[in-house]
Design a protein that fits this description.
The structure holds 3 protein chains of 3 kinds. Helices cover about 40% and strands about 20% of the residues of chain A. Chain A is of the alpha/beta class. Chain A has 2 domains: about 5-195, Rossmann fold; about 275-385, Rossmann fold. In chain A, strands 2, 3, 4, 5, 6, 7, 8 and 14 form an 8-stranded mixed β-sheet that branches. Chain A has a 5-stranded mixed β-sheet with strand order 11-13-12-15-16, sandwiched between helices. A two-stranded antiparallel sheet of chain A has the order 1-9. The longest helix of chain A has 18 residues, at about 150-170. Chain B has one domain (about 5-270): Rossmann fold (3-Layer(aba) Sandwich), CATH 3.40.50. Chain B is about 35% helix and about 15% strand. Chain B is globular and about 65 Å long. Classes of the chains: A alpha/beta, B alpha/beta, C mainly beta.
Chain lengths: ~375, ~280, ~80
């Protein structure tokens, strides 16, 4: 289906990534948002708080991130499209409800505008150090989807995509911005509503009495219902059977959690999104995401000028990781270089997937700034030696 | 005889018998709740139950309504999301004392301050039952719990006073002995608009009654019968519960105050030309 | 499952699902007309369950049903002509 034109500010804008993310959410049909102020993400909800009364939505500033992150789940079960927005310390508090969203298969979007950590860290300065937290931060086994925009335009486009993926797979989607992308102001073009594709909620069409809340379709995703419907369904964070009833044993755990994991893993080819340039015939591939992918361009360009064959692979979904494509590339290249604003997170995943076929060089950065591109360039030189 | 207990229509009978201990008062509260629901004559599709974690948290799973068993302490913010999305719903938060006023205490006071349109039913058994009888923010001084083996020395909350002081529009307390009054109070919290709070004193014989030599569930019920005093309209400051002390019951507060949504629509109408009042998303 | 129905005097009757009973005794204690007593028998879980001792006293008020935490008993009013 197409976007509701009431929420779409069609035209060219000069706005930052945070505002663009807010606009993307509204264009995606999000009409419920809850948040708690935290730098550098607050502008997203400020934008939404100003815009929602004009397009029929409701924003509530909750008492903390625990409340925000579950209010949105309540909203989804009431029938809304919903999201919350935060940054590192708030993201830590939201972990419990990422788990609940996974377990109850609640389609919802969590935005994390990453800043330096651990703890209070660097509230106003960038990092990319929540990537593993996004993947593994809640307890237990589960799979999520995480997207990394690298421009305000992508903050708009990919927020819509994040909502669509969450609806399609009934999974919480982590929208992993960083302070630079969030606070960077650029041209953002918002298309007409009829050019924006929206994945509709997968509501059940079963008759009352015949609906099993966790009986999946062929793609392992079950249709959903909402409060107010006549299904008398029960939703729980406990391990549950197809009826949604708690069952406390290993067999039910295997069936329930296996499917939560498999619905993402087995659909990964459809979910994974990346951009690549000159990766077919090169000696070294630079793998990057978010703001770092733009910093790396300078280094890649300089290396090319020096005659080095450098490919560029930009991750758009970091989770699931583009395992299949990386494995293909690993058969042919001499080395990988991965700059990220942490001391090695996605690096470990890359190394695991490359599996020793080629060396993987990390270009770490502790956060507080972006890389000096010269350092990435030097690592490329080192990698092709 | 082919007569069927009418409450079975409201229960997930495929999940009965429930997990609650012999002499636990939770089933009694559920009886009263179902009778209250019947009396309100509300269409059941428009009622949702939200529970947190703990013994009382399991209520949501036994009622044949659209029901949500959420995380520990967070039933209220979940209910807020649900209710704001669809204000036609009557959202009932049914949870325990540890869940609502310890781990969920901040959500409780903030929701009351905002006057969220929620019915809050708090079953207070003075302890953490599901985890084995630890001290709670409601445990009276001197009561023994597994984590206060020498007697509790912390001052507990007086829940009606707490709810009253942060803005609840309806505040009542009954025990599981007072089934008729409890049913009426449940009907009232369901029908009341705004943040409505009902405390139910209920026996946990396994982990509170026996450990504190009050006895089993029946002895605890008799204790309520003998030591309860009905004082409707009492000042909530005066209704704190001491160890083996009297239990003041009654309806303490019943007042009007604009809800969160009424205030929001009022303010936005004043400030935004042609503002269309928000009335839900579905 | 033992369904016992007693109907002597026309005002009320009690129905008991003994298998669900956990023997708390609330119904016996709080029956306003003292219709019930605890049975010496056990159900399959090992609990004593209530039995109707004085059927003619039952008013069908269903207070037993309101107290029973295990949904194991309830009272019904009987029609006068019955």
């Amino acid at each position: 289906m197409k976007a509701d034109s009431k929420g779409v500010l069609t035209g060219a804008h000069f706005i930052d990534g945070d505002y663009a993310c807010g606009e993307g959410a509204i264009a995606a049909g999000c009409r419920f948002a809850a948040g708690y102020p935290i730098t550098p993400s607050t502008e997203v909800v400020e934008r939404i708080a100003a815009r929602f009364p004009h397009c029929g939505g409701i924003f509530i500033q909750m008492e903390d991130e625990l409340a925000s992150s579950i209010a949105i789940l309540g909203a989804v079960w009431g029938g809304a499209k919903a999201m919350t927005v935060t940054s590192g310390p708030g993201f830590s508090l939201m972990m419990e409800h990422i788990g609940l969203a996974c377990m109850t298969e609640t389609p919802v979007v969590f935005v994390d505008v990453q800043r330096g950590g651990p703890s209070t860290g660097l509230p106003t300065l960038p990092a990319q150090a929540d990537m593993m937290q996004a993947r593994w931060g809640s307890h237990g086994d589960y799979e999520i989807i995480a997207l990394c925009p690298n421009s305000p335009q992508e903050c708009f486009d990919l927020t819509i995509h994040a909502f669509n993926l969450s609806e399609q797979y009934r999974v919480p989607v982590m929208f992993m911005m960083d302070e630079c992308v969030g606070h960077m102001t650029e041209r953002v073009v918002i298309p007409p509503a009829e050019e924006i594709n929206i994945y509709p909620r997968r509501y059940t069409t079963a008759k009352p009495g015949e609906y099993l809340p966790y009986l999946p379709d062929a793609d392992l995703v079950p249709p959903i219902a909402k409060a107010g419907d006549s299904y008398n369904f029960h939703i729980t964070g406990l391990t549950h059977n197809e009826k949604g009833y708690p069952v406390m044993n290993a067999e039910c755990q295997e069936k329930c959690v296996r499917r939560l994991v498999d619905k993402i893993r087995l659909n990964a080819d459809k979910i994974v999104k990346f951009e690549e340039e000159e990766t077919e015939d090169c000696d070294v591939v630079v793998v990057s995401y978010g703001i770092t992918s733009r910093v790396a361009l300078w280094a890649i360009q300089k290396a090319k000028e020096k005659g080095i064959k450098v490919g560029n692979l930009r991750l758009i979904t970091v989770w699931p990781f583009p395992e299949k494509r990386i494995k293909q590339i690993a058969e042919k290249v001499k080395a990988f270089v991965i700059p990220e604003i942490n001391y090695g997170q996605v690096y470990f995943e890359l190394e695991r997937v490359v599996g020793g076929k080629a060396p993987v060089h990390l270009v770490p950065h502790g956060g507080g700034a972006v890389h000096n591109p010269e350092v990435i360039y030097q690592k490329i030189l080192e990698a092709v030696k | 005889m082919s007569e069927r207990n009418i409450i079975e229509e409201y229960l997930r009978m495929d999940r009965i018998p429930h997990i609650w201990c012999p002499g636990c008062g939770l089933g009694t509260t559920v009886n009263c709740f179902i009778r209250a629901l019947q009396q309100t004559k509300l269409p059941l599709d428009n009622i949702s139950i939200v529970s947190g974690i703990g013994c009382t948290g399991r209520v949501a799973g036994y009622l044949k309504l659209n029901s949500f068993h959420t995380t520990h302490g967070r039933a209220i913010p979940f209910a807020i999301g649900l209710q704001l999305t669809n204000p036609k719903l009557k959202v009932v938060v049914y949870s325990g004392d540890g869940d609502l006023v310890s781990i969920g205490g901040n959500h409780f006071i903030q929701a009351a301050r905002r006057n969220m349109d929620l019915a809050i039913i708090c079953v207070n058994n003075f302890t953490y039952g599901m985890t084995g009888g630890q001290v709670a923010p409601t445990t009276p001084v001197d009561a023994v719990a597994t984590t206060t083996p020498y007697g509790n020395f912390e001052e507990p909350f007086n829940l009606p006073h707490l709810a009253d002081s942060v803005g609840a529009v309806y505040v009542a307390r009954w025990t599981t002995y007072h089934v008729m009054q409890l049913t009426r109070a449940m009907k009232e919290v369901i029908q009341k608009k705004g943040f409505s709070f009902l405390e139910i004193i209920s026996p946990c014989p396994t982990l509170y009654g026996r450990r504190n030599k009050i006895g089993d569930g029946l002895e605890m019920m008799k204790f309520y019968k003998e030591n309860s005093e009905i004082r409707n309209g009492a000042n909530t400051k005066d209704v704190a519960i001491g160890f083996k002390g009297p239990i003041i019951c009654g309806k303490f507060v019943d007042k009007e105050r604009p809800t969160f949504l009424e205030n929001m629509n009022q303010k936005l109408s004043e400030r935004i030309p042609n503002y269309k009042p928000y009335n839900g998303l579905v | 499952m033992t369904d016992v129905a007693i109907k002597k005097e026309p005002r009320g009757a009690v129905l008991i699902t003994a298998e669900r009973c956990k023997g708390c005794g609330f119904c016996v204690e709080f029956c306003p007309t003292k219709v019930l007593s605890m049975s010496d028998e056990y159900n399959s879980k090992g609990y004593h369950f209530p039995k109707v001792a004085v059927p003619e006293s039952c008013s069908g008020c269903d207070l037993c049903g309101m107290y029973c935490p295990d949904f194991a008993i309830f009272g019904i009013r009987l029609k006068k002509s019955a």
